[in-house]
């Protein structure tokens, strides 16, 4: 678990399962379609930064090229598709953990009922709009694998390039930036030969909280149940690693 996206970690660990692959590809297909629409209908990654970042993530998950192209065409209107909209929910999990759940739905009323039910069944409670979001900041989040490099050198490099903060997450570094500076810092890191694992706009907790091992297990069950919902793409929490 981490203070930023739980769903990315889940996706990365589920790729061995063919059924899970199909589900993940479906989620990325929706993300790509929405990214095209958000970019004014532009299916060109070179002029649509959100689309570019989403495609990069999809490729890392081994999403087939033809799936990516179909999703882009649904966004541009070249192919018929579902009527999709972005949804976001706030709530509290076991131990008072604050959660933001982001997703894409073809039926927001149905999805709201499903998410509320998942919270209720897993010792959680949904909250009203704004009740949780104030506890988080919108940040660019760039994950970099250390891979034998000096962690200290990478941290210093990121700070010199303008990063707001750098945190160690196992064998990776999470580099946080102002949202509008993420792409420039990502590009500068790549030009210096640094491999980028992922880059996205995340909700990052202003303050993280500690919970008991029992509560962590309960929160994990809530996370897993939320992640199983087709509409859910990202889950953000304020749990301290």
- Determine Rg (CA atoms, Å): 18 Å
> Based on DSSP secondary structure assignment, what is the total number of beta strands?
8
- Name the overall outline: globular
Helix-strand topology string: HHHHEEHEEHEEHEHE
If you consult CATH, what is the topology of the largest domain? Alpha-Beta Plaits
What can be said about the biggest beta sheet?
Answer: 4 strands, antiparallel
In the CATH hierarchy, the architecture of the largest domain is: 2-Layer Sandwich
- Percent in helix: 40-55%
The CATH class label of the largest domain is Alpha Beta
What ranges have pLDDT less than 50 throughout 5 or more consecutive residues?
A: none
Tell me the domain tally.
Answer: 2
> Biggest sheet, strands in spatial order?
3-1-2-8
SS strand fraction: 15-25%
How many separate helices? Answer: 8
Can you walk me through this structure?
The chain has 241 residues and is α+β, with helices and mostly antiparallel strands. The chain has two domains: 1-135 and 207-241, YebC, transcriptional regulation domain (Alpha-Beta Plaits, 2-Layer Sandwich), CATH 3.30.70.980; 136-205, Alpha-Beta Plaits (2-Layer Sandwich), CATH 3.30.70.980. The chain has eight helices and eight strands; from the N terminus they run H-H-H-H-E-E-H-E-E-H-E-E-H-E-H-E. Strands 3-1-2-8 form a four-stranded antiparallel β-sheet. Helix 2 packs antiparallel against helix 3 and helix 2 (18-38) runs parallel beside helix 4 (65-76). The chain is globular, with a radius of gyration of 18 Å. The mean pLDDT is 87.
């Amino acid at each position: 678990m981490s203070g930023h996206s739980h769903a990315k970690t889940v996706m990365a660990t589920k790729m061995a399962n063919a059924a899970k692959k199909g589900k993940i590809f479906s989620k990325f297909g929706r993300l790509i379609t929405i990214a095209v629409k958000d970019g004014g209908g532009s299916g060109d990654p070179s002029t649509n930064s959100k689309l570019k970042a989403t495609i990069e993530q999809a490729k890392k998950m081994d999403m087939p090229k033809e799936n990516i192209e179909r999703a882009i065409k649904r966004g541009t209107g070249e192919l018929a598709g579902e009527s999709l909209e972005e949804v976001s929910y706030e709530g509290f999990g076991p131990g008072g953990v604050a959660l933001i759940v982001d997703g894409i739905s073809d039926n927001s009323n149905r999805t709201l009922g499903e998410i509320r039910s998942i919270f209720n069944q897993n010792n959680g409670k949904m909250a009203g709009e704004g009740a949780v979001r104030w506890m988080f900041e919108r940040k660019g989040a760039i994950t970099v694998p250390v891979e034998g490099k000096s962690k200290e050198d990478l941290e210093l490099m990121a700070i010199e390039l303008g990063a707001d903060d750098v945190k160690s997450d196992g064998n990776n570094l999470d580099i946080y930036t102002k949202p509008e500076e993420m792409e420039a810092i990502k590009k500068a890191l790549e030009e210096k030969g640094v491999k980028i694992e992922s880059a996205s706009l995340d909700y990052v907790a202003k303050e993280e909280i500690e919970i008991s091992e029992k509560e962590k297990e309960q929160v994990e069950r809530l996370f897993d149940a939320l992640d199983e919902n087709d509409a859910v793409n990202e889950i953000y929490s304020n749990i301290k690693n």
